């Protein structure tokens, strides 16, 4: 049954659907009293901050080598070289806004923006 339902969706759409289902399930379980909402919020915020920081550290330590490697990949295209060039140009103009927007409004871009922030040596704090 699941295979028929998900067959028409792309990989990104399936991942987005799974994460939304997980969030809804977690909210239902928290409402039923199966989860402690305070601990759940603390863990979610901590995990989010750690993920963002890890992306920044990878970009900072490996710099543009990571972006060059991503651009050269033929078997798996996480993003195109044109997208990376556009993100770098945008980041040079509006770095702080790019971070805020990717964190709260366009979370799908968060990983890429964090790596670019590290690669471009944007101040961490």
Which key features would you list for this structure?
about 120 residues, mainly alpha, 2 domains, globular
Notes on the protein architecture:
- It is built from 6 helices and no strands.
- With 125 residues, the chain is an all-alpha fold.
- The chain folds into 2 domains: 1-35; 43-125, no CATH class.
- Helix 3 (37-62) crosses helix 6 and helix 5 crosses helix 6 (110-119).
- The model has no long low-confidence stretch (mean pLDDT 76).
Fold topology:
Layout (H helix, E strand, L loop, with lengths): L1 H5 L4 H21 L5 H26 L1 H9 L8 H24 L5 H10 L6
Helix pairs in contact: 3-6, 5-6
Instruction: Write the H/E string, N to C.
Output: HHHHHH
Low-confidence stretches: none
Strand content: under 5%
**Average pLDDT score:** 76
Please bin the fraction of helical residues.
over 70%
Concise synopsis of the structure shown:
It contains 6 helices and no strands. The protein is mainly α and 125 residues long.
């Amino acid at each position: 049954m699941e295979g028929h339902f998900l067959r028409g969706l792309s990989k990104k759409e399936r991942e987005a659907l799974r994460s939304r289902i997980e969030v809804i399930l977690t909210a239902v379980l928290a409402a039923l009293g199966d989860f402690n909402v305070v601990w759940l919020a603390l863990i979610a915020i901590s995990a989010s901050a750690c993920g963002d920081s890890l992306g920044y550290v990878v970009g900072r330590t490996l710099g543009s080598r990571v972006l060059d490697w991503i651009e050269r990949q033929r078997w798996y295209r996480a993003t195109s070289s044109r997208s990376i060039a556009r993100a770098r140009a945008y980041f040079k103009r509006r770095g702080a806004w790019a971070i805020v927007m990717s964190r709260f409004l366009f979370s799908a871009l968060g990983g890429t923006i964090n790596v670019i922030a590290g690669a471009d040596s944007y101040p961490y704090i």
